[in-house]
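Model: Ready when you are.
Researcher: Fold this.
Model:
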Amino acid sequence: MRRSRDLLMGVSSWMARSYADGHGLVFPGSFASASLALRPSGIELSCRDRETIQALMELLRTRPVLLGRLAISKRCQRLAADLHRPAGNLPEPYPLRRRAFDASVVVRRAGLVHPIGGRPFPDDVLASEAELLDRVEGALAGRADATAIDRTDLVDAIRRDYLTVAPWPFQALTDTLGT
């Protein structure tokens, strides 16, 4: 829990600096309002923690209605617990096998990449595998090397690089239960 507490304190510090231009953030009676002070100097954040903070900030920037949910202490506690859990299936770098590598390149060039850190947000709706395969095959149409890429390799790449990637651990903010 120490890592998740440090991460939330880092988020709060980032939010405090981001809104230092006079907009301010006020969450009366919540964990968030208590921790909007600058992050203590003894806390170091890993690259993964920084990526998580950036993703959370992007989620809050693009969906400002979720910002108010940080005022609910139960949501903050759930968020801290979610941040403490293992990340699950993360986006992988390109595979080493040639066929899998080529299929991954084609899938990514077709635009099948989650925009924030390669991971979806918890409430993102993903298209079906068949729709995504049609999109990738449409992007391949007319290319000379299209016949060299097997359909099963494309399906595997779509699953591995897009459909089965674990979402960011922000379910506590995005779910509608107990809003």
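Researcher: Now this one.
Model:
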Amino acid sequence: MFVRVRWAVSLLAALLVAACGPAGSGQETYGESMASWPNYGDLAGLVKASDLVVEARVVRRLGSRDVRGYPEQRVPVSFTESVVRVERVLKGSADGELRVVQVGADRPEQRYAEFPLIAPGSHVVLFLVDVSNEPVHADGTKKYVILAPVGLLHVQGSRMITRAPGWAASDEAAALSLGELRSRVAALSRN
């Protein structure tokens, strides 16, 4: 329950676009999008906040939809849903294909430089939270949301690539090889 409440609070922070408070207000502004994203601290904090961590291939994009479901929201926020094929579970339990939700859409006003939409064919490591029972996502299917830009890592060979440099969790993960990241997430999951 604590993770759900913390996730909902974190998502609300992420959805407050272009209305970020001043430094020290608890809202941090990252990237050119002026979006305010939750910060999980280091890799251990990101792993702890995640229900599921998977290495996967993006199979297809299902589409985007605008949501106006949070009282603090001033403008609709778009979510894009994709299907990924799980290649390896690093934390949690899953197999086969998963439906993954990501903040953003393929429209200029809903694109985030630090959190690009996952593209079909991409090899990724995703830090996820189950949102199957969240009112804005509930449609009877099992769904997960990517935890902010730090929860999305692209795999190129054995290297980890992040679009969110400067954050402790993503910098720590990007400094590891894929094999090292697998081992580190497994170790942190046991703690």
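Researcher: Key takeaway?
Model: The two ends are 19 Å apart (CA to CA).
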